[in-house]
Specification:
Residues 171-329 form the Aminotransferase class I/classII large domain. By secondary structure, the chain is an alpha/beta fold. It has two domains: 15-36 and 248-332, Aspartate Aminotransferase, domain 1 (Alpha-Beta Complex); 38-244, Type I PLP-dependent aspartate aminotransferase-like (Major domain) (Aspartate Aminotransferase, domain 2), CATH 3.40.640.10. It contains ten helices and 15 strands. It has helices at 38-50, 66-78, 90-104, 132-142, 216-222, 226-229, 236-244, 246-264, 286-294, 323-332; strands at residues 15-18, 21-25, 83-87, 110-112, 146-150, 152-153, 158-159, 173-177, 194-200, 210-214, 272-274, 280-283, 297-298, 300-303, 311-316. A six-stranded mixed β-sheet has the order 3-10-9-8-5-4, with helices on both faces. The protein has a four-stranded antiparallel β-sheet with strand order 11-12-15-14, with helices on one face. It has a three-stranded mixed β-sheet with strand order 1-2-13. A hairpin with a 4-residue loop joins strand 6 and strand 7.
Length: 335
């Protein structure tokens, strides 16, 4: 399967223009299509009026903005944590949280689940070379102090069972990258271990920012880290829009859930790799990929996460798609 590149003039919503032709767009991780919602657009305009440029300064600058604190409090409350802290990106959030844990536990082993995102790894800490089942078994037997995992496997769509974390101890730390679940699925995790969840907010939430969710004590300590203090803050205008357009997010989440149920209920004898309750799916059948293109659908097709990985065809059922799109799509996916 080949890598494909398109040069777009605007962010795709329901459709994308490719070489002068309009296609229904299945690619990207813009799960909620929040940029299409009138309320989000209105609040973003207000945000740009209040904050017409990026604020590129230290996070400990003596000039601070309440919009960051208010948005952190909102995310902490929504996802069942005592506190939260914003970062410039999801990758920054993962790395800042991980480096903090490694410095706090310099002698500890960091055990990283298979297929975990580079945001929660280092060149010294590669993902486990084996199945997730074997990794969980090893973790429960060896009891490493630091653990890392994605909330869902990507780009191949696979849901993870986290019931095993009830067997962890209070002396252990579990770092979870929730970039592809936050805003789409419930990410709350319960365990005796200390839970730290990080995420990109540029996917479902559509803003250039990342988030770290943890206990109040841990967030206070991470905010003392030079990596966070010296990093750029997230864009104020987009944070303002996210904070004040929560009704838009709720509406888009309801549409997405309805679209997923409608689409997934019609999947029979299909050739896709998908995770029930999540909008993404993958294909490795070139005949069906060509069939979709011939009928006006386009999706992502590129190597990930390494440049020389085999190209993957990945699609998502966005909130912007219409029922007619989903019915046609489900019919075209029959193997």
């Amino acid at each position: 399967m080949a890598n494909l590149t398109y040069f777009a003039t605007h962010i795709p919503g329901r459709t994308i223009q490719v070489e002068g032709q309009s296609y229904r767009w299945l690619g990207g991780t813009n799960y909620l299509g929040i940029g299409e919602h009138p309320l989000f657009k209105e609040k973003l305009k207000q945000g740009i009026k209040l904050f017409p440029q990026n604020w590129g300064s230290s996070r400990k600058n003596n000039v601070q903005f309440l919009v960051w604190q208010d948005l952190e409090n909102l995310f902490a409350a929504q996802y069942g944590h005592e506190a939260a802290m914003l970062c410039s990106s999801g990758f920054a959030a993962g790395q800042i949280a991980l480096q903090f844990l490694l410095r706090q536990q310099p002698e500890a082993t960091y055990s990283l689940a298979p297929f975990s995102h580079p945001a929660i790894s280092t060149y010294l800490h590669a993902p486990y070379d084996g199945s997730r089942v074997d990794w969980i078994k090893a973790v429960l037997e060896e009891k490493p102090v630091l653990l890392g995992s994605d909330g869902i496997r990507t780009p191949w769509a696979e849901l993870f069972d986290f019931s095993w974390i009830s067997q962890l101890s209070p002396k252990q730390y579990l770092l979870v990258d929730e970039s592809h679940r936050i805003g789409v699925q419930d990410i709350r995790l319960t365990s005796p271990a200390q839970i730290i969840q990080t995420a990109s907010l540029s996917k479902a939430y559509g803003i250039p920012a990342g988030i770290i969710l943890a206990s109040k004590a841990m967030i206070e300590e991470i905010k003392k880290e030079a990596q966070w203090i010296g990093s750029s803050p997230p864009n104020l205008a987009f944070c303002y829009a996210c904070l004040h357009a929560q009704e838009a997010y709720q509406e888009q989440q309801a549409i997405l859930e309805e679209n997923m149920e409608y689409f997934q209920s019609r999947l029979t004898n299909n050739a896709i790799i998908w995770a029930k309750g999540h909008p993404s799916f993958c294909l490795d059948n070139l005949t069906i990929i060509r069939r979709l293109e011939e009928h006006g659908f386009q999706m992502n097709q590129f190597s990930y996460p390494r440049w020389n990985d085999p190209a993957i065809a990945r699609a998502s059922v966005h909130a912007t798609l219409k029922k007619a799109d989903l019915m046609e799509l489900s019919q075209l996916l029959q193997s």
